[in-house]
Amino acid sequence: MSENNLLSKNSAPHSDVEQIKIRSNYLRGSLEETLENRITGSIPEDDNRLMKFHGSYMQDDRDLRNERAKQKLEPAYQFMLRVRAAGGIVTSDQWLMMDRVAQKYANGTIRLTTRQSFQLHGVIKWNMKKTIQEVNASMLSTLAACGDVNRNVMCNPNPYQSEIHGEVYEWANRISNHLDPRTRAYHEIWLDGEKIVDSRDAEEQEPIYGPVYLPRKFKIGIAVPPSNDVDVYSQDLGYIAVIEDGRLVGFNVSVGGGMGMSHGDVKTYPQVGQVIGFIKPEQAVDLAEKTVMIQRDYGDRSVRKHARFKYTIDDRGIEWFVNELQTRLGWNLEPARAFHFESNGDRYGWVKGSNGKWHFTMFIQNGRVMDDGDYRLMTGLREIAKIHTGDFRLTSNQNLIIGNVSAQKKKKIEELIKDHGITDGLHYSALRRNSMACVAFPTCGLAMAESERYLPSLITKVESILEGVGLREQEITIRMTGCPNGCARPMLAELAFIGKAAGKYNMYLGGGFAGNRLNKLYKENIGESEILDSLQTIIPHYAKERQHEEHFGDFVIRAGYVKEVRSGQDFHA
Ligand code: SRM
Ligand code: SF4
To answer: What secondary structure letter does DSSP report for 283?
Structure first.
């Protein structure tokens, strides 16, 4: 195959990253050598690009950046490592491994992410190989946790209907395995696998991706209504389980969602997926494969900001995509079936599943697992993992479920929960229980403002406004990110803040409570006092004039604070 054929059907010059990928020989680059280099804690940019496919980003501690520069030291380089498990389900042994490596090689905390993965921060270059080896020894992986490939497949961790969940989870797993990159580079570099001098051609080596992989990341999630916890409309490809007479009969298919945008660039925008039809469960893997391949062939490889699948669809039209998909599949989708979403949040506390086992969902503020005074979350979860024979389920809202607890173990686990000051979170306000913030400072290189470290204190202040008008128990989704990349999916929240600069945020209103509508810019570049001033007006107005069961996001549109956004293409209008 010629180099041009290996790239996309677009003839524009390809971006630097495309050149790096093609030169990399299936993600090898010079990673092996640069990891050995002891002179610096960093790796060169080309290898850093490839490192993402291996599940890691080079970062530096931004809290220390200025001080180190003053001392003429290189930045405090360190690596973030993302560990994925389809549907966010891990065993107790895997939890214990994560706990161990977090303490041994990372900053002593575990971060649960918005895509049901784990992140470790602060791993230094010399410890990367040992960390990745331990992760793999416990049957988890970092491969394809980042990079221009299919990412962690999300799946509703529903403890309510355990049988349906089990079945849906199996499909998530199959899709995930099917779309894993096949390159041997990961095994060679990290696991000391045998080096393969490969004479196989592109199609044999990476039958789905080819040698340049995708133009950009690709995301898949499966929702089980009435819960839209995976924010199915934010996914490049979303499946919505259809359950009839208590059986999983198939999935409605949603395509072309995505959150990322850049401030000031109206050509970039968040988008919600469009439902294009219904498929049977056994068609789910095939459809995912063909969709990924269409994006591989038609996605923009010259402008990375325009390279997500949502732009391929918006530029060419949904009819074009459905035609192309059905032609490649050799069969047609059926008309979409009826479904209804109620919320995109988690439901906390103990619940008995249909299999007779118990499940405990706990709120973990912004997904950060660590000990903090009497709240000994990290230690408590370690002690629970030592005796728990069920599973741990990471939710898409950065929370955790201790799943499949037997009736015999329930009492002991309850004691451990209590002894370590862990809580289901039900004593928090409904606003806090429905909150999410991305990592941002000090590790994220793209952060423009604080997020994880700031949202909790902002919520405390908003809570007092809500309490003043009797709305402490009113469920409102609130999300914050340190930049417009949208890692906590803020564009789908009823109330959202997106970082612009230190202490300054764009404020958005009007997202759908079930994650089914984008929000809209309300005020630009404002600090805390202006945020609170605005809410001092809007929240009491909502308390006074809301209709029966009207959600905050719906009210702010009806009351004229913002216009309704029906498609991402109108987001900036
Ligand atoms: Fe994200 C980049 C953290 C979910 C959109 N994201 C990053 C990086 C790697 C920053 C970087 O490129 O240097 C962040 C690492 C910060 C750190 O220090 O840990 C980062 N993203 C996260 C996590 C950890 C946020 C969290 O607080 O949980 C989430 C990890 C998910 C996982 O386990 O795989 C995370 N990122 C998301 C989501 C939400 C989702 O996938 O459901 C989105 C929006 C959905 C989407 O992709 O459209 C998201 N992240 C981005 C983007 C913008 C992509 C775009 O279309 O423009 C970037 C920047 C980029 O890719 O260039 C980004
Ligand atoms: Fe970093 Fe921006 Fe993602 Fe937050 S939204 S983690 S600041 S890239």
So the answer is: G
Task: Determine what percent of the chain is predicted with pLDDT higher than 70.
Answer: 97
For range 130-155, the mean pLDDT: 97
Q: What are 233's strand-pairing partners?
A: none
Query: Please, where are the H alpha helices in 420-483?
Result: 430-433, 455-468
For residue 240, CA distances in Å to 48, 236, 249, 251, 568 come to: 35, 13, 11, 5, 21
- pTM assigned to the model: 0.97
Which residue's CA is the nearest one to ligand 2's atom 2? Answer: 483
E strands along 486-536, which residues?
495-501, 504-509, 520-526
Query: In the prediction, which pLDDT does 5 show?
Result: 41
How crowded is residue 201: how many other Cβ atoms within 10 Å of its Cβ? 9
Average pLDDT, stretch 38-51?
A: 94
6 pLDDT higher than 50: no
Dihedral sign for Cα 369, 370, 373, 376, please: positive
pLDDT at residue 3, rounded to an integer: 44
Residue 486: closest CA among 296, 235, 152 = 235
Amino acid, res. 409: K
In the predicted model, is pLDDT for residue 162 greater than 80?
Answer: no
Structure tokens, 134: 């331990």
Cβ partners under 8 Å of residue 126, min gap 6: 38
The predicted model gives 6-21 an average pLDDT of 79
Q: Buried b / exposed e across 61-97, counting CB within 10 Å, b at 16+?
A: bbeeeeeeeeeeeebbebbbbbbbbbbbbbbbebbbb
* Ligand with minimal distance to 483 CA: 2
pLDDT at 199: 61
Q: Which ligand neighbours the alpha carbon of 80 most closely? A: 1
- Residues within 6 Å of ligand 2 by CB: 438-440, 444, 446-447, 451, 481-483, 485-487
Instruction: Give the residues surrounding ligand 1 with Cβ less than 6 Å away.
Output: 57, 59, 80, 82, 113-115, 117, 119, 151-152, 219, 234, 258-260, 308, 367, 398, 438-439, 443-446, 485-489
- The answer to whether the Cα torsion of 231, 237, 242, 246 is positive or negative is negative
Neighbours of 170 (CB within 10 A): 15
